[in-house]
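Sequence only, no structure available. Ideas?
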Amino acid sequence: MNNYGVLPPWLVLDPLLRGWLMEDIGRGDRTTNTLLLEDVTLGSAKWIAKASGIIAGLPVAARVFQILNEKVSFVAVVAEGTWCEPGQIVAEIHGSLDALLMGERVALNLAMSLSGISTLTHIYVEKIVDLPAQLVDTRKTTPGLRLLEKYATALGGAINHRMGLDDAVMIKDNHIAAAGGIGEAVTRIRSQIPYPLTIEVETESLEQVKEALQHKADIIMLDNMPLDMMRQAVQLIRQQDRRVKIEASGNVTLETIRAVAETGVDYISSSAPITQSKWLDLSMRIVL
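Reply:
I predicted one. Tokens follow.
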């Protein structure tokens, strides 16, 4: 299984995790704080998978608990990115019970969400694993969760597209309309951007593909094209400039992704592994 996901440093993630903990804890955990009035009570817990899928987000979950109490021990029983079955123990945790109880929901929510994304990404990737085309994600992510959601798609075997608007130039239909055409947009942008940013142009017709080629786009996106037109576009691009990378996009599903890959494109972008994923059910059980 591909395992390319790399988490951002804690310097970046910690403020997010602290914010999510503060959202959940608010003015204090009424239940836990009232229940555990005495000195620190130690306890243990197990995380158990309740559905089949790829486990993702265990290092993030561990960090959630350790923000609450740095002495919490979170031991992953399975490796990050491993496929698990129902009933399988995923992690074992030991530490102060107040940290375990207060961190449970945030940690589980993150791991279940990320595991669901990794699982569906893996299913998409398996559809084209024997073909040269590679699956890439998009910027259709949950606000505040992009870094982690894109980590999850990479863990599932996809390639991260640009993380944000500052990563690369992508000239989409509305940019083209605002500039007055592909040529005008590419010319104006190329004179302003720093090296080595690439320029990608979204196209919806063979005429637009020809215009993008004429103006030396680095990547040409074939957006919502019928398969016959997509094949023609790929042939046209390959004949004229083999250095240009080709991306297909638009309404990619598990039923269509293989046919799209067979047209000869280099990349297939889809938001589905994130936007259509289902959380992978995990549970935590306290063991005193």
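The chain has a mean pLDDT of 96.
Hope that gets you unstuck.
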